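Morning!

This is the sequence you dropped in the shared folder:
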Amino acid sequence: LEPPRKNQQVPVCEIKFTQESASCYIAHGKHKGLLVSDVARMASDGHIAWDAPELRLDVVWWHGCFRSLNNRHLAVLKQAGAEKCLVREWPLTPGLFLPGSNRSVLQKFLEVQTSRVGGCTIQLKDRSRCSP
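The structure's back. Tokens below.
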């Protein structure tokens, strides 16, 4: 099995979140450790292009719509008011792994599929302030 070979342009409004909540800090990539809202501001101010590689989303097609596996980056795009974005569409197939991950696409999707509102919104939380 091989990962998707090309990116697609998709309207941001057609992509749903998979998680009900996530940390308000970017966890991976070029903007690791920054607040989602700060990266969104950089994108809306034109310092980061909507089609920048670090904002490309990994998505799956499930129940008639795209579901993001990069929920914080989707939040960045939505907060920035981006009309479109680049996605890599992954099949929900066992044995296919995201680059740099030890989890399969299917396993990641099943683990993060927690939205109880159909993926329309996500709640960003400052988990560093949560007590253990």
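Headline: Strands lie at 8-11, 15-16, 21-23, 57-62, 65-68, 84-90, 123-125.

More detail when I'm at my desk.
O.
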